[in-house]
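Summary for the funding panel

The consortium committed to producing paired sequence-structure records for every protein in the target list. Below we show the first two records in order, beginning with the earlier of the two.
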Amino acid sequence: MKQSLKAKRLAKHHRRLKGGNKLNLVALMDIFTILVFFLIVNQSEVRVLQSIEKVKLPVSVAEELPVENLMIAVIDNTILVQERAVWVVESEVKAGFDPSLLQENPDMVTAITTELEYQASRRPELTEIEQQKGRAVTIIGDASIPYVLLKQIMAACAQTGYRNMSLAVEQQAKTVAEG
């Protein structure tokens, strides 16, 4: 049977529409561009210091956000400066700190001082704030660090011009601290 012209035209029209819809990528790219700019402008001010799983930071109600400084970490009888081991105590005590760290240890102070002087020599020019306050350093350590050890590390920092010291702490909510 022969088809009429109208039937041929309708069949051709249906075949053309049967091909499927095309995705309009221009509108999609516009949306993603706006989303990227929105996320860049509205990024949060949360800063995370290097995460060390073995360290349980002391709790504090800290107001200031951490700044990226030179990092000194004290982990299980090891002292790291910028993730580089500068002092390791070989000990039979596997957990916790070695009791020998509780005495004055001039070798440890010398090792830390040498590394800090090297780090300072990598950037010899000081900003105006660094000339007033000293170079900045952040000390990360477990809440159970003996004060004598912390005092030795701080003395080595002060000796090499790193007088602007910060201690890494875990921020506690203000409502918990007040109660």
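The next record, for a separate protein in the list, is shown here:
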Amino acid sequence: MKKALWLLIGVVAGFIVAHQVNKTPEGRRFFAEVDDRTRSFGSAVVDGYKSREAELRAAVADAEEAIADLAKRVK
């Protein structure tokens, strides 16, 4: 319980410090840069996920087609 209290105190202190830093022009620039990089990273993750998903769907479709061809040969 004591560790959770310290964690909560740290989070609150972090928000207070971030709020104070954001009041300065340098702080706003810093947080804007962090925001841009975070969005860029998120976009890269989404693009990679969609690319890999398309590859896997194509592989599954190829496998289904091969299975269907084998099933026809067996009959």
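Regarding this second record: Residues 25-74 form the longest helix (50 residues). The chain is about 95% helix and 0% strand.
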